[in-house]
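I'd like us to work through together how a protein chain folds, taking it slowly. To get us started, please write out a protein record for me. Go ahead whenever you are ready, and we will take it from there:
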Amino acid sequence: ACAYKEPATSIGLILGTGTNACYIEDLDKVGTWNGDHDEPKQVIINMEWGAFGDNGCLNHIRTKYDEEVDLSSINPGQQTFEKMISGMYMGEIVRLIILDLLQRELLFLGHRDTYGDYKTPIYNRGGFYTKFVSTVETDEGIKFSNTRRVLEDIGIRNPTFDDCVIVQHICRQVSKRAARLAGAGM
């Protein structure tokens, strides 16, 4: 769509609920092209890059949280790259990290008794939305009003300053990893 207004555009990228990319390639470099070689002498290549890593080439950078997201998805073993960078999965990765720290008693100390209720969203798949990741990341300073609001929304009452620092760090690291992977893909 951008190429209509900006003819020099040579790539297309979707980073949203899912992810994909495409680019313009010269016809003479596309060995599988059976169509005309008339003008224009270029084609758009759909990379379907969400499936990058399905052959195991990303296994060395996948975490146990990535593996859990994959196994509980509707398409285990498929769309590996997409599950590491897209909006459909980032919130779940953050939830799994928070839950792991909670269960190992490294987060929300002193409030353990109030988090045993498995109806609390943090215990349920999809209970931490990707929009929460963005909201938490916007906090600046030491009040953590957005982080506290998100944690309250998922049933975690009266989080400490340290809890907020850790949750924000988790959100920022998951986002940063997604951005770096997307950048590496480009």
About this structure: Strands lie at 11-15, 19-26, 42-46.
